């Protein structure tokens, strides 16, 4: 299977490429004409030469900046993406899951979202629902078994747990979901129902847990969303049997985002880079450890950034929130896990080849807090990608030991 090789690319490249240009080579293609819909893109002088996309059978004169209804698309895609004739791994993954409605949409006064730079109308991908947000969830195993909720990190998707599902579902009801702003879940434009603050993620997590599980639950969370989950858990200890953290930012040195992620929060540059599928997905996955992403896997991670600009706008907003709030959240997480009132059995898995988060201080923290530490020597930051089957089996053992003691 071909591996992705990085090179610089320009989202707004205007050169035409062949219909079968490869993703690995970073070449773009324009959509081909179809009997039902013909797309074309042109630069509008009256809008500062902004790239706009139109469809010949649209009834109105709506312009789209980077974002458009699912039926229309952005006007360009990678080979093997949504608009390719080739089978899509992203479609196969999506078909295994379902949409769950949870967490109320914030008040927007019925206003339609516009892009934050030029004020152009956004497509459906950036519009919030009228009542509750739509979350993509995938579940496996009997509903009668103890539930395990798999919570992905930043930036990632529920897809990162695909290796966990067949192993954990043998004994547990296993559920994975995409956070708002990621994967196949809603990606509302910031200030139109959801602002992507960490406090909002805490409150929305409560809604998702209520909708997807019953009774007590085991929470598994990876990376930079760990402080969010711990804050939720601190006020819901009675509902949680186990808390399993995969390479969480646990020391003072972990309170700042690595440059690979912090760049998405930069003014203007971050807004540009967050629209680049290769930076937002491929590079974020491969720069933090030994992981080498395969082409069919990369196609799933890229999919949100290829079909709509809403994923990029969300990534930019989340990065800004993380940069502003992460330090305080990490400090609060440390205090919570060290508190003598903390009663939830906590286990920390650590991929020792993590290039983002140093192992220095992690072992000392676990000894002082008396939490179990399980080291994974050959894994990086995304342990579920590097050693998915091994980590899933270890998690099953950890949860199983707890079940036997109850």
TrEMBL record:
Entry-linked SUPFAM superfamilies: alpha/beta-Hydrolases
Molecular function per GO: epoxide hydrolase activity
Any Pfam family the entry gives: Abhydrolase_1
The keyword Lyase is annotated on this UniProt entry: no
Keywords on record: Hydrolase
Top-rank taxon, per record: Eukaryota
AB hydrolase-1 domain ranges (all copies): 147-386
Protein name: OLC1v1006586C1
UniProt source species: Oldenlandia corymbosa var. corymbosa
């Amino acid at each position: 299977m071909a591996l992705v090789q990085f090179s610089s690319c320009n989202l707004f490249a205007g050169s035409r490429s062949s219909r079968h240009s490869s993703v690995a080579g970073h070449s773009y293609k324009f959509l081909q004409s179809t009997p039902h819909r013909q797309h074309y893109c042109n630069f509008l002088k009256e809008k500062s030469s902004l790239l706009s996309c139109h469809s010949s059978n649209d009834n109105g004169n709506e312009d789209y900046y980077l974002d458009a209804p699912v039926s229309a698309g952005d006007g360009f895609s990678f080979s093997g993406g949504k608009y390719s004739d080739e089978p899509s791994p992203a479609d196969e993954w999506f078909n295994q899951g379902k949409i769950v409605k949870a967490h109320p949409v914030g008040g927007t006064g019925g206003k339609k979202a516009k892009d934050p730079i030029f004020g152009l109308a956004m497509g459906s991908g950036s519009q919030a629902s009228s009542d509750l947000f739509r979350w993509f969830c995938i579940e496996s195993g009997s509903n009668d078994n103890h539930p395990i909720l798999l919570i992905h990190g930043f930036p990632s998707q529920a897809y990162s747990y695909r290796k966990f599902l067949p192993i954990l579902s043998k004994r547990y009801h296993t559920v994975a979901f995409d956070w708002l702003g990621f994967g196949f879940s809603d990606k509302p434009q910031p200030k139109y129902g959801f602002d992507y603050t960490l406090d909002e993620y805490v409150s929305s997590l409560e809604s998702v847990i209520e909708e997807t599980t019953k009774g007590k639950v085991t929470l598994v969370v990876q990376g930079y969303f760990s402080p969010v989950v711990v804050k939720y858990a601190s006020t819901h200890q009675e509902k949680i049997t186990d808390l399993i953290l995969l390479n969480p930012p646990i020391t003072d040195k972990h309170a700042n985002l690595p440059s690979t992620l912090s760049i998405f929060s930069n003014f203007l540059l971050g807004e540009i880079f967050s629209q680049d599928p290769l930076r937002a997905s491929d590079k974020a996955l491969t720069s933090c450890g030994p992981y080498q992403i395969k082409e069919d896997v990369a196609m799933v991670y890229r999919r949100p950034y290829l079909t709509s600009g809403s994923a990029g706008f969300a990534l930019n907003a989340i990065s800004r929130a993380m940069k502003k709030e992460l330090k305080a959240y990490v400090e609060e997480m440390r205090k919570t896990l060290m508190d003598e009132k903390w009663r939830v059995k906590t286990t920390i898995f650590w991929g020792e080849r993590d290039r983002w988060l140093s192992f220095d201080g992690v072992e000392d923290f676990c000894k002082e807090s008396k939490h179990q530490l399980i080291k994974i020597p050959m894994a990086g930051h995304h342990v579920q990608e590097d050693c998915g089957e091994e980590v899933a089996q270890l998690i099953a053992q950890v949860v199983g030991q707890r079940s036997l003691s109850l």
